[in-house]
Each structure stands twice: as structure tokens, then as C-alpha cells.
């Protein structure tokens, strides 16, 4: 591990533009669930005999809003804080390094830590809007109907989070921005993701630099790119050993 940290440190020191491509594993050390592990969101749903691709879809939200909005959601009760990984990346940027973050997470923890260039592939769970009129409502003061479904008092439209659900396409501008950042960076750090979820696998192919590092608890397959360094560990635990 020590040798791997030294190598990562050297790569970061030498890089001018670093692109960090992160997934759920970046936030697990902040207490947020990932998808597929024992406590993962999908695993829990499947234990209840629910198919995540169905019950986390746009169609299900529209056709079964009462069930959709009344499902126990552990994430909402938590007030997650950035962990050592988020903090390191923000501090590195603050020191003058060109750090770009592309994240599959919707939790906003990179921004909370202070990162300034964060592309959110799957949207964010801090903005809520009415699907009919677009009015925005704050999470803490969400108008709800008698069935506890968040609804706009003006036109009774469903109020939803600005996140990508199953059955929805990613914002093409966000995809283009991600590709451009990947193409224009010289070090790619893929962290806390299996790259198995669309569009992660296809996106990293656009990396135009020469060095690729993976930090993940289990080894992953990175198509079309040669991985220079694979660190099998947690993301925060790894990054906190580095110096700025
Ligand atoms: Zn409305």
C-alpha cells in the first residue's frame, strides 16, 4: 500500500489537469449506501422483492406516486458530511491544482467540501421542482397532498428531485461537458465505481491523457484504457494519506 500511495502521489504531483471520475464508493465513508453491497440500496429493495429498475423509474413515480414517495428512504434522514476523500480533492484544488470532478453521485458532497468544478451525471438531490410548471420548492418546506405526495399547490404537479431516474436520459450537455473534461486531462482517477452503470463505461473511453489510476475496494475492468495503478482500498482512506 505504501508503495502505491507514493506512486499515486507522484502522478498527482506531475499532473497538470486531474479528472476524478467517482461513483457511490466515494460517499460510502460519509455513511451513504452504495447500490450492490450488503446495505446497498438495490440489495435492500430486492430483499423486499422490489425491482430497483421498476420502483426507481420515472414511470413508477408517475403511476404510483403514493408508493414512490412513501417508501422508507434512509438517505433523507441522514445529514451526510464530506469525508476525507472529498476534502482532499477540494484542498488540492484550493492549492491551485486543476482538479475536475465528474460524479455519478447526487449528494453534493464534493461541493460541500469546497470543490468548484463538479459535473453531476445523475443530477442532484438538493433541487426539487414541479413537473408541470417548474416552480422550485425547498426540501424542508415541501407542500404535500393528503397522501404525503409532494405536490405543487398551484397546479398539483408532482414535485420531484432533479435526479435521473430509470427510464430517463442523461442531460446531453452534461455528457458533452464530461467528455470534454476527460479528453483534456492528463491524469484520470476512477474511484468508488465498478463502471458497470451506463454511461460510466462509455464515458471514460474519452480520456485523452496518459495516466489512469483506479481506487476501488475490488478490482474493476476498465475497457480500452491501460490502468497504471490499481489501488484496492476505500477512497477516503487512500486519499487522506496523500499530501497536497
Ligand atoms: Zn407547479
Topology:
Blueprint: H1 2-14, E1 17-22, H2 41-47, H3 52-55, H4 58-63, H5 65-70, H6 74-77, H7 84-94, E2 98-103, H8 109-113, E3 118-120, E4 123-130, E5 159-163, H9 172-183, E6 187-191, H10 200-204, E7 211-215, E8 229-231, H11 235-239
* Helical/strand content category: alpha/beta
CATH class of the largest domain: Alpha Beta
Q: How far is the N terminus from the C terminus?
A: 19 Å
Strand content: 15-25%
Bound molecules: zinc ion
Uncertain segments of ≥5 residues (pLDDT<50)? Answer: none
Mean pLDDT: 94
CATH superfamily of the largest domain: TPP-binding domain
Radius of gyration: 19 Å
Question: Describe the biggest sheet?
Answer: 6 strands, parallel
Helix content: 25-40%
The backbone outline, from C-alpha atoms, is elongated
Compressed to H and E, one letter per element, the order equals: HEHHHHHHEHEEEHEHEEH
- Strand order in space, largest sheet: 3-2-1-6-7-8
Number of helices: 11
CATH topology of the largest domain: Rossmann fold
By CATH, the architecture of the largest domain is named 3-Layer(aba) Sandwich
Main features:
single chain; 244 residues; alpha/beta; Rossmann fold; 3 domains; six-stranded parallel β-sheet; two-stranded antiparallel sheet; 11 helices; 8 strands; 32% helix; elongated; binds zinc ion
Amino acid at each position: 500500500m505504501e508503495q502505491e500511495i507514493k506512486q499515486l502521489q507522484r502522478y498527482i504531483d506531475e499532473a497538470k489537469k486531474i479528472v476524478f471520475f467517482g461513483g457511490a464508493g466515494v460517499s460510502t465513508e460519509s455513511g451513504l449506501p452504495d447500490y450492490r453491497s450488503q446495505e446497498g440500496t438495490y440489495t435492500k429493495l430486492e430483499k423486499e422483492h422490489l425491482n430497483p429498475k421498476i420502483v426507481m423509474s420515472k414511470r413508477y413515480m408517475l403511476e404510483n406516486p403514493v408508493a414512490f414517495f412513501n417508501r422508507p428512504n434512509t438517505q433523507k434522514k441522514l445529514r451526510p458530511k464530506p469525508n476525507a476523500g472529498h476534502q482532499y480533492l477540494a484542498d488540492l484544488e484550493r492549492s491551485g491544482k486543476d482538479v475536475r470532478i465528474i460524479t455519478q453521485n447526487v449528494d453534493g458532497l464534493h461541493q460541500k467540501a469546497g470543490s468548484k468544478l463538479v459535473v453531476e451525471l445523475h443530477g442532484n438531490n438538493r433541487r426539487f421542482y414541479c413537473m408541470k410548471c417548474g416552480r422550485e420548492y425547498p426540501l424542508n418546506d415541501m407542500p404535500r397532498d393528503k397522501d404525503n405526495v409532494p405536490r405543487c399547490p398551484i397546479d398539483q404537479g408532482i414535485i420531484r428531485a432533479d435526479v435521473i431516474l430509470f427510464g430517463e436520459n442523461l442531460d446531453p450537455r452534461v455528457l458533452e461537458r464530461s467528455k470534454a473534461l476527460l479528453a483534456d486531462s492528463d491524469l484520470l482517477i476512477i474511484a468508488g465505481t465498478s463502471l458497470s452503470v451506463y454511461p460510466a463505461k462509455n464515458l471514460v473511453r474519452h480520456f485523452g491523457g496518459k495516466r489512469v489510476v483506479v481506487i476501488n475496494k475490488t478490482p474493476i475492468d476498465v475497457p480500452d484504457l491501460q490502468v497504471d495503478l490499481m489501488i484496492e482500498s476505500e477512497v477516503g482512506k487512500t486519499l487522506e494519506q496523500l499530501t497536497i
